Known about the structure:
Layout (H helix, E strand, L loop, with lengths): L9 H29 L3 E7 L7 H11 L1 H7 L3 E6 L14 H13 L4 E6 L7 H8 L1 H8 L2 E4 L5 E5 L9 E5 H4 L3 E5 L1 E5 L3 E3 L11 H4 L4 H4 L3 H12 L3 E11 L7 E3 L3 E5 L2 H11 L8 H5 L12 E5 L2 H4 L18 H8 L2
Parallel strand pairs: 1-13, 2-3, 2-7, 3-4, 7-10, 8-10
Antiparallel strand pairs: 1-12, 5-6, 8-9, 10-11, 10-12
Helix pairs in contact: 1-14, 2-4, 4-6
Amino acid sequence: MPSKSKKLSRRDFIKLSAAGIVGVFLGATIAPLVKRLQQPLADVMIAKGNSYNNDLTGTIRRGISYYSDVLEKVKGGRVVLKPNLIDYDPARPLNTHPAMIAAAISALRQLGAQEVIVAEGSGHNRDMEMILEQTGVDQVLRDEKVRFVDLNSDAISLVPLVSNYTKLSQFFFPNTILGADLVISMPKLKTHHWAGATLSLKNMFGTIPGVKYGWPKNYLHWYGISQSIADISTTLDPGFAIVDGIVGMEGDGPLNGTAINSEVLVMGNNLTAVDSTAARIMSIYPENLLYLSLMLPYGGTVNEALINQVGEQITDVQSDFEVLPHMAQIKEKPPLWKRAIISGW
């Protein structure tokens, strides 16, 4: 016998609608709390540094020593330093300062690293030897007897992506990076005319081999800069970051900006937390940087309440970095809903 359809009364409709509204409200309330719980606690070290002549080795050594998991990888391990060496302009602070690289090498050796390698794959100037010579990094390499690897021409391997925001499924990566016990990202504290800020995660873009993806690696830009940054970083999973903010760059970064004496170093083993802290030091809201949000499902932390600031406090070292007019929104306080979704408050 065919069943009779039950007509929905007005009272039943009101009850269902009310239940739906309550469900949406609870979902909107609980979801940010769940997202907040998913963000792990992170320690980020902030150190003042008003000169490249300071005891940078001691500062970096103390920073690395604070993180037991990083120290364990350093001892007896092969460590690859990935600085930001993009080009040379004597009037602009484009690159990680050679004194920072020398100090990191010295600190790592003091902490027991078996081998330290410096590696970079510039996405702008193809002549890596010229960049090394003009920046003075080649002298550091000679003095410290450290090998340099041009990641644009290194042997490569195809690796499945962890996050796959670009939908490309796999990237080629240099074997020098893949074979390291620890990769340390050493960016310059800079604004970026497309990504907003170029810090330790964006710095990993230089691991993409130019021999495969060309210059300035626009192939990946077409699939989204933020998406590419996240796919590279979640897949390679660099274990530590040392941000050179003694002299930073504001305005039209990463190439045409102007110097700003920000006088700070930022270090940590959660690169999303490091970059969120560095962004706040620049007076940029990290919730407005898309690539940081993309890192949240993969162990990233943006929520300031979940980041323990070791050493100096942000307010004591904060600078007001200028940004290009079309990037002005990254310095605007995010609306409550956005902060709730990204930072859980």
